[in-house]
Amino acid sequence: MLANNIWRIGGEAHGHVLNTFTTQPFINFNLPFAWSITTAPIITADWSAADGQKWTVPIGIGVGKITHIGTQAMSFGMQYYHNLNHPSFAGAEQMRFQATLLWPTAAAAAARSGRRADDQ
């Protein structure tokens, strides 16, 4: 779980009042063959917004896959979210695409090559 709240301490004299909350729970279920099912909705609140415009609350699910491109380990993911509640200026749907380069530890690299990490 990731959570934070950001405030502007300068007050209204220094621009728009800033008081925003963000939380992101992470849930992941690993499947065979390096696939996964995941959800990590980004839930936000703008405490200084008008009533009915404060919250963005998505619900959704995604899939991920760890693979190699050449010798480089990579993780790819795609997630879809529907915003159950959102400000009138925000969209009702979200799509998230993700590509991550992975650098395994020496122990993981050794296991993959069939050696023990302390044999190096």
Notes on the structure:
This protein has 120 residues and is mostly beta strands. It has one domain (2-119). Helix content is 7%, strand content 53%. It contains one helix and eight strands, in the order ββββββββα. It has one helix at residues 106-113; strands at 2-7, 19-24, 27-30, 35-39, 43-46, 55-69, 72-85, 93-102. Strands 1, 2, 3, 4, 5, 6, 7 and 8 form an eight-stranded antiparallel beta sheet that branches. β5 and β6 form a beta hairpin. The radius of gyration is 20 Å and the shape is elongated.
Give the topology:
Layout: E1 2-7, E2 19-24, E3 27-30, E4 35-39, E5 43-46, E6 55-69, E7 72-85, E8 93-102, H1 106-113
The overall average pLDDT, rounded, is 90
SS content category? mainly beta
Measured as a percent range, the helix fraction is under 10%
Cα gyration radius (Å): 20 Å
- Based on Cα principal axes, name the global outline: elongated
Give the termini separation.
37 Å
Number of domains in the coordinates?
Answer: 1
Oligomeric status: single chain
What is the number of strand segments?
8
Largest sheet: 8 strands, antiparallel
Instruction: Please state roughly what percent of the residues sit in beta strands, choosing from under 5%, 5-15%, 15-25%, 25-35%, 35-45% or over 45%.
Output: over 45%
Q: DSSP helix count?
A: 1
Task: Please provide the ordered H/E string of secondary-structure elements.
Answer: EEEEEEEEH
Low-confidence stretches: none
